[in-house]
Amino acid sequence: MTLVDSDFWGSPQGGLRESIQEMEPEMDGDFSISGFLDSERRKDLLRFTTAGSVDDGKSTLIGRLLYDSRNVYEDHIRAVTVAHPGQGRSSIDFAQLTDGLRAEREQGITIDVAYRYFSTERRKFIIADTPGHEQYTRNMATGASTADLAIILIDARKGILTQSRRHVYIASLLGIRRLVAAINKMDLVGFSAEVFHRIEREFRELVRQVGNGRSGETEVEAIPVSALEGDNVVAASARMPWYRGPALLRHLEEAPAAYPSGLS
Q1: Could you tell me the fold of the domain covering 44-254?
Q2: pLDDT digits over 166-193, tens only?
Q3: 215-248 as b/e: b if 16+ CB within 10 A
Q4: Which residues, 6 or more positions from 248, have their beta carbon under 8 angstroms from its beta carbon?
Q5: Most buried of 9, 56, 215, 244 (most Cβ within 10 A)?
Q6: Contact of 183 with 224, CB cutoff 8 Å
Q7: Pairing of β 178-184 and β 81-84
Q8: Strands 178-184 and 45-52, how do they pair?
Q9: How far apart are CA 134 and CA 53, in angstroms?
């Protein structure tokens, strides 16, 4: 989970490399810090942004993505674990993993753009989790300005809303040509294929309209998810066998990156 500063790593002094090489003989097992850092540096980088209307589940989706891909520290998990007295159980408030400002935690909304770095075996990522409230729409534009791909969250119960249309329009203005329609809260509509396909058709038509009929210039992937339950976020969902496409993480790992390995 360490973000490697490629400029420092590639500096003529090589101080970090030499220090690590001196430490490695004292380490137990087969783990190599320098090997790990080199492998991280060779991975390419994908920058993506998330957007949607209020309560579509953006922060929950990113929290679930980080948690299920093992990119959250244990102390952070403990800090956002909520006990349920009398029920003998506890649960993780995934939205709290990304809502960093006190005002955000107290109001239960995202206000500022929250940037998060994480990596998998295949790629490095920088997420810009942007606000959904209409009042903070300009912050969505800020977060999307450096993105290679945009995830537009849509509540399966509500469908495409005015704010969803704004976000697609902003992504188009900023030249983002890869969009993911993450149709969330599928658990609340009984994992209905009919609901998913209806919203997918409407979303593709929206992209076509925003692009003045040139929808072929924008790649669209629609994925049915339940951020709260984890369906199709990191692993494929057994509760939606009718969906044959990739889980969200797999799509992010396979989407073309603007920063090839060694240049990120």
Answers
A1: Rossmann fold (3.40.50)
A2: 999 999 999 999 999 999 999 999 999 9
A3: beebebbbbbbbbbbbbbbbebbeebeebeebbb
A4: 61, 65, 151, 180, 182, 223, 225, 232, 233, 234
A5: 56
A6: yes
A7: unpaired
A8: unpaired
A9: 8
